[in-house]
Amino acid sequence: MLVIMTSEKILSKSREEILQEGLELKYLANEHHLSIIMFLKKRKSGTVGEIADILHLSFKGTSKHLLFLVKRGILVRHDDNPFVIYSLSSSPNLSSLTKQIISLL
To answer: Which residues, including other chains, have CB under 8 Å from residue 82's CB and lie 6 or more apart?
Structure first.
């Protein structure tokens, strides 16, 4: 369910909050980021190679997108020698906006 904010609620947000939400929307709007998130939502986890193969992306490019999403707290990585396994974060620190967008995918 998408929550529409009233103009009253928008006006009560600080400039920093609005800018932060704008940044979240920007990096979640990236088609590769969305594809990775949708893949991991469906498959629960995957390696760089698996994700790159399924999404038809380069290994290097996929790795960069994954690290970007890990730094933003959207994904987590687990070392499982010799592989690194990526999955969606269940962190309570994810913003409500990011959680809502992921739930809609």
So the answer is: none
State the pTM of this model: 0.80
Measured distance CA(98)–CA(102) in Å, rounded:
6
Q: Exposed (0-12), middle (13-18) or buried (19+): which is 68, by Cβ within 10 Å? A: middle
The answer to whether the beta carbons of residues 48 and 63 sit under 8 Å apart is yes
**Domain 18-104 annotated CATH 1.10.10.10:** yes
Helix 31-43 and helix 15-28: axis angle, to 10°?
Answer: 80
| Cα-Cα end-to-end distance for the chain | 11
Query: What pLDDT, in 10s, does the model give residues 45-87?
Result: 999 999 999 999 999 999 999 999 999 899 999 998 899 999 9
Q: Where are the domains of the chain?
A: 18-104
Query: Does the pLDDT value for residue 93 go beyond 50?
Result: yes
